[in-house]
């Protein structure tokens, strides 16, 4: 363990994990309140396409996630939710097409370059693989996200509770919704850096849902979600570092595995606390 | 057999609430009976007891001489209140009605002329022949109601239950469904029990009424039941029955004339 | 990866196995997909294959056939989906469970020698994903699934369309849901080695979604769905063989293309029909 604090990748991982945990916690709470978990999930999966494209172009995958995340979020909002019934099928089919395309790009990635890790890096991520150069961009986007949420806080909350109510009070519900969804796209790409595109839902939704089981106040929930997210990412980094000596491979278990498992454990713990409280109250 | 459905002294408690209190009435073949009461009076609960989906704490229910439950269910056609259909469900009206014959059976089905004829006859009885090949998801509210009635009746059960069949229909469509039910009752000799919160559309065709209030019921002909003193007893406080412009209205309080003029 | 060397001629040797397997997969996916669409069970069609990833990955660690791993884990995933669905908490809890199953699969595969290529094959499918030895198991599963779908056909329809009536007539909606999910588990076991976990959904939902736009009765819809699924996998294999590109790419793109074509056909038909009916009425009035 002595090498833990001296290692460069660990430093980067700890900082990146913190940024992702805090921003995901804040935006995740609103995502859950607004019932947009599924959109967040879809945006994460679609990031695969951006990531694999960026990889092919020789750019850092993170920029692929962000571009696709923000662009798709804007388009999703444009099409709106007119067809609630068919929406699941349509989303699934679009996701399928995007993932199929991503499969092709990943195939090109592996045939044109000598590095074989593109698939793993993009789909399952690794906090240890974050390049120090990406950190400032991540921090910058994280700060922009937090500022946006702070500015939008009250209209966002009101329109999350009732769109009609918010519209009656003069809130531009459409604009707020669009900005928020784009924000979700950006946050999901941050979390894709940490745990990969297809696991990114975990950090966006898990800590937030757990926090909302523990407290009803939005502001408290935001803080609790960020803290739970930190526990998951930092816990994942520590466990993964420690697992270097574990069987069977002695090469260390993937950090993303630990992060998502910790998120699930925290969520189940919160459910249990909520359940115990409900029983004690009744 | 002179009674199709007999309900005797049925008590039901749900979540500590006395939902049905000593409920009892009988229904004869070829009769159209309205189960009338406001929302939350216990109508749907009573249906669930008759279908054997909810056990009664006390009392018993017999459908054509059999206690409510699995074997008795085969004797009951049922049209639920809420039917949400996706417009894209790949099912024609004909297919939905034929599921009324054997939708509950596992295993292969042999194609038979007899089945097809039964389905066609039923569709024509409810006046839905021209809809036979339409997608079920594209039907209007009134059309869907007709098709669901056909689905419930195609196996020729002696008893047909309809849960609020008029709730989602406009006046004209509601009137058509009521006329259809009255016709089917007489033509097919089936006993119909339908629930509604408003008795007015049913007054011209109802043979009997089962009025539910506060978990208790009163049954008989409309003229016997829809009277101030009978309903006051049910509600446990004074109510009056008024007739306003041909419509019967039940109001709280002991005001106005208490006689019902029946046609 | 999708590319392989020395696979011989397009229709012989190991390629013959690929063709037969894919044909079986398409038939079963077309039939079961019909019920996915009728029940609106898109979540199950997504969740079962995703969770089964861990099973296939576990099999790779143990050095046994992927079909064995999928065969064990898919039914468990189906039961899990049924249980979560029964508690009506499908949202967050299920999303997290799926993600952890994916993470678990990644962990297992990180213990194997060919980490990256294994992950890729299980997620996006592999043209030669099924060996000749596994063909018998796949065929057996296909027969089982089609027979089960035929036996369950009417109760599955009734519970999907009129659940309240089904309960009244003694068909348990819960039992029907469970049978249905086990069918999805069988398809998953057969299809994941070929099209991969991420693209199972495209194969299971694309063809029936398009089929319901062109066919009316359940029987015709199932037939059309199977036909479209067959065209999908056959073209995917042929194109994959010719281009060396991954099978999953073609399945995903074709699935979406079918879906869009179906939507367009339905929209066209809807525009033509009421218009034709309304016009004389308007004239008469």
Helical residues, percent of chain C: over 70%
What is the mean predicted local confidence, pLDDT of chain A?
A: 85
* Number of structurally distinct domains of chain C: 1
So, the CATH homologous superfamily of chain C?
ABC transporter involved in vitamin B12 uptake, BtuC
Number of helices of chain C: 11
Q: Largest protein interface? A: A-C, 51 and 51 residues
- Return the CATH topology of chain A: ABC transporter involved in vitamin B12 uptake, BtuC
Instruction: Outline the biggest β-sheet of chain C.
Output: none
Shape assignment of chain C: globular
CATH superfamily of chain A: ABC transporter involved in vitamin B12 uptake, BtuC
The rounded Rg of chain A comes to 19 Å
Describe, in plain words, how this protein is organized in 3D.
Chain A is mostly helical. Chain A has a single domain, classed as ABC transporter involved in vitamin B12 uptake, BtuC (Orthogonal Bundle). Helix content of chain A is 79%, strand content 0%. Chain A has eleven helices and no strands. The longest helix of chain A has 28 residues. The termini of chain A are far apart. About 2% of the residues of chain A have low confidence. Chain B is of the alpha/beta class and 263 residues long. Chain B folds into two domains: 221 residues, P-loop containing nucleotide triphosphate hydrolases (Rossmann fold), CATH 3.40.50.300; 36 residues, no CATH class. In chain B, 30% of the residues lie in helices and 27% in strands. Chain B is built from eight helices and twelve strands. The longest helix of chain B is centred in the C-terminal third of the chain and has 18 residues. Chain B is globular and about 60 Å long. The N terminus and C terminus of chain C are likely disordered. Chains A and C meet through α4, α5, α9 and α11 of A and α2, α4, α5, α9 and α11 of C.
């Amino acid at each position: 363990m002595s090498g833990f604090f001296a290692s460069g990748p660990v430093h980067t991982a700890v900082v990146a994990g913190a940024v992702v945990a805090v921003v995901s916690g804040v935006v995740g709470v609103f995502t859950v309140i607004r019932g947009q978990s599924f959109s967040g999930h879809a945006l994460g999966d679609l990031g695969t396409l951006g990531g694999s494209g960026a990889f092919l172009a020789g750019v850092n995958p993170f920029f692929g996630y962000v571009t696709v995340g923000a662009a798709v979020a804007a388009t999703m909002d444009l099409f709106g939710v007119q067809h609630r019934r068919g929406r699941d099928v349509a989303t699934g089919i679009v996701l399928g097409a995007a993932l199929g395309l991503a499969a092709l790009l990943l195939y090109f990635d592996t045939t044109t370059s000598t590095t074989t890790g593109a698939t793993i890096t993009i789909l399952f991520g690794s906090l240890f693989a974050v390049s120090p150069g990406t950190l400032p961009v991540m921090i910058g986007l994280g700060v922009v996200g937090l500022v946006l949420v702070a500015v939008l806080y009250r209209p966002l909350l009101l329109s999350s509770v009732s769109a009609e109510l918010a519209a009656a009070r003069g809130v531009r519900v459409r604009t707020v919704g669009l900005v928020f969804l784009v924000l979700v796209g950006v946050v999901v790409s941050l979390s894709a850096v940490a745990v990969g595109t297809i696991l990114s839902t975990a950090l966006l939704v898990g800590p937030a849902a757990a926090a909302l089981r523990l407290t009803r106040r939005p502001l408290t929930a935001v803080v609790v979600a960020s803290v739970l997210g930190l526990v998951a990412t930092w816990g994942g980094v520590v466990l993964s570092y420690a697992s270097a000596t574990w069987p069977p491979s002695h090469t260390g278990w993937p950090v993303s595995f630990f992060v998502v498992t910790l998120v699930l454990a925290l969520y189940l713990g919160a459910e249990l606390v909520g359940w115990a409280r409900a029983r004690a109250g009744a | 057999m002179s009674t199709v459905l007999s309900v005797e002294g049925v008590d039901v408690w749900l979540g500590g609430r006395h939902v049905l209190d000593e409920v009892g009435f009988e229904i004869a073949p070829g009769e159209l009976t309205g189960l009338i009461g406001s929302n939350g009076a216990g109508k749907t609960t009573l249906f669930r007891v008759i279908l054997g989906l909810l056990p009664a704490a006390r009392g018993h229910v017999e459908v054509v001489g059999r206690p409510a439950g699995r074997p008795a269910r085969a004797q009951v056609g049922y049209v639920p209140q809420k039917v949400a259909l996706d417009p894209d469900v790949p099912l024609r009206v004909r297919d939905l009605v034929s599921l009324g014959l054997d939708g509950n059976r596992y295993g292969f089905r042999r194609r038979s002329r007899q089945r097809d004829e039964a389905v066609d006859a039923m569709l024509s009885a409810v006046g839905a022949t021209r809809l036979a090949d339409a997608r079920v998801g594209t039907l209007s509210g009134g059309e869907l109601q007709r098709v669901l009635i056909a689905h419930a009746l195609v196996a020729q059960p002696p008893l047909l239950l309809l849960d609020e069949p008029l709730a989602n229909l406009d006046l004209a469509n509601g009137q058509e469904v009521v006329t259809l039910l009255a016709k089917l009752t007489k033509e097919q000799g089936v006993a119909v029990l339908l629930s509604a919160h408003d008795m007015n559309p049913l007054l011209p065709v109802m043979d009997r009424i089962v009025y539910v209030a506060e978990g208790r019921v009163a049954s008989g002909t409309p003229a016997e039941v829809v009277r101030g003193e009978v309903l006051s007893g049910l509600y446990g406080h004074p109510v009056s029955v008024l007739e306003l412009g041909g419509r019967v209205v039940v109001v709280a309080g002991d005001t106005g004339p208490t006689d019902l003029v029946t046609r | 990866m999708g590319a392989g060397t020395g696979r011989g001629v397009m229709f012989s040797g190991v390629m013959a196995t690929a063709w037969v397997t894919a044909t079986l997969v398409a038939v079963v996916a077309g039939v079961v997909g019909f019920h996915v669409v009728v029940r609106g069970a898109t979540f199950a069609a997504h969740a079962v294959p995703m969770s089964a990833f861990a099973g296939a990955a576990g099999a790779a660690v143990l050095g046994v056939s992927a079909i064995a791993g999928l065969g064990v884990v898919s039914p468990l995933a189906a039961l899990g989906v049924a249980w979560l669905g029964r508690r009506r908490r499908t949202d967050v809890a299920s999303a997290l469970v799926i993600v952890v199953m994916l993470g678990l699969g990644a962990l297992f595969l990180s213990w194997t020698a060919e980490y990256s290529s294994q992950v890729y094959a299980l997620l996006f499918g592999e043209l030669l994903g099924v060996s000749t030895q596994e063909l018998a198991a796949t065929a057996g599963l296909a027969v089982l699934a089609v027979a089960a779908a035929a036996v369950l056909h009417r109760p599955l329809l009734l519970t999907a369309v009129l659940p309240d009536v089904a309960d009244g007539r003694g068909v348990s909606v819960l039992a029907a849901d469970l049978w249905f999910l086990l069918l999805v588990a069988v398809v998953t076991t057969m299809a994941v080695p070929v099209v991969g976990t991420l693209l199972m959904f495209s194969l299971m939902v694309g063809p029936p979604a398009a089929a319901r736009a062109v066919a009316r009765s359940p029987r015709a819809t199932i037939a059309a769905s199977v036909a479209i699924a067959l065209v999908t996998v056959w073209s995917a294999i042929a194109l994959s063989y010719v281009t060396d590109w991954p099978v999953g790419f073609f399945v995903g793109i074709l699935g979406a293309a079918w879906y869009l074509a179906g939507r367009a056909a339905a929209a066209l038909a809807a525009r033509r029909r009421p218009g034709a009916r309304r016009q004389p009425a308007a004239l008469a009035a």
